[in-house]
Amino acid sequence: MKEDKKPDSVVFNTETQKYDAALKPYATSVGAPVITTTDNIAWKNRSINKVNHKLEARYSELKAEYDSMIQQFEYNKVIFEAKFTFEPIIGQTYHLYKRENNETFLSIIKPDECNFNFMGSFYLNVEQIWEKV
Questions:
Q1: Model pTM?
Q2: From CA 6, how far away is CA 97, in angstroms rounded?
Q3: Left, alpha or beta for 69 (phi > 0: left; psi -120 to 50: alpha)?
Q4: Along the chain (133 residues), what's the average pLDDT of each consecutive run of 10 residues?
């Protein structure tokens, strides 16, 4: 027995035995609207550019913060390795000096009041972290 062939203008799925023109991802008749893909290359390029700038800016911020933290770590290391015979008070500024034998010491004496080899002034904050003044 010969199969019933539908005309070319009718969209009929022989496997499911259903009319499925509305389910097709493409136009199925001459009167159907033209389906075109949108050109999103310009949008992608703008987005890539924006994302790259944002990530680069964020990286720069993080790197600056990291460098600052490393510098603060180094200051604290030098101060805690220095000699001092008193308990530093939070909120006070102290001065770091170096002796002729390269030994460092912390003092309350200001640099203009002595002739020691001055290395820097440091402030002890509430978190007990030394900050360079």
A1: 0.58
A2: 99
A3: alpha
A4: 65 81 76 77 90 96 96 94 92 93 92 90 93 91
DSSP collapsed to 3 states, the chain: CCCCCCCCCCCEECCCCEECHHHCCCCCCCCCCCCCCCCCHHHHHHHHHHHHHHHHHHHHHHHHHHHHHHHHHHHHHHHHHCECCCCCCCCCEEEEEECCCCCEEEECCCHHHCCCEEEEEEEECCCCCEEEC
Instruction: Please state, in angstroms and rounded to a whole number, the distance separating the CA atoms of residues 66 and 15.
Output: 64
Beta bridge partners of 19: 12
Q: How many CA atoms lie within 13 A of 31 on its CB side?
A: 2
